[in-house]
Amino acid sequence: MTIDENNHLWIAHWVGGRVSKWDPVNNRKLDELKIPAINVSSCTFGGENMNELYITTARIECSDDILKKYPYSGGLYRMKVTTKGKKSYRYKK
Predict the structure, then answer these.
(1) How, if at all, do strands 52-58 and 2-3 pair?
(2) pLDDT averaged over 10-residue windows placed end to end, the chain, 93 residues
């Protein structure tokens, strides 16, 4: 999961083939990005303007039949989005 500048939550869906964007205050789904891989493992913002969503996927737990349907499983994806990621902060002990 990651969060954007508007405090919307972006969730990678394992065995879901998508990333969804949520408004956690109103408990409402705002958007959904389909990914050509079944096991979407993580997402984070990056790029020069923090308006690119980097999405990782996995091939683990994929049968031969699933890999025939989702041959791009295990890839890294980059999608430009209309919002920017929120700056993260280091944890200090």
Answers:
(1) unpaired
(2) 96 97 97 97 96 97 94 97 88 79
12 and 43 Cβ atoms separated by less than 8 Å? yes
Cα 41 from Cα 43, distance rounded (Å)? 7
Q: Find the largest Cα–Cα distance for the chain.
A: 47
The neighbour count for residue 81, using CB atoms within 10 Å, is 18
Q: What are 74's two structure tokens?
A: 């295990």
Query: What is the DSSP-derived secondary structure letter of residue 87?
Result: P
- The first and second tokens of residue 25, run together, are 């205050």
Q: What is the pTM of this model?
A: 0.89
Euclidean distance between CA atoms 58 and 37, whole angstroms: 8
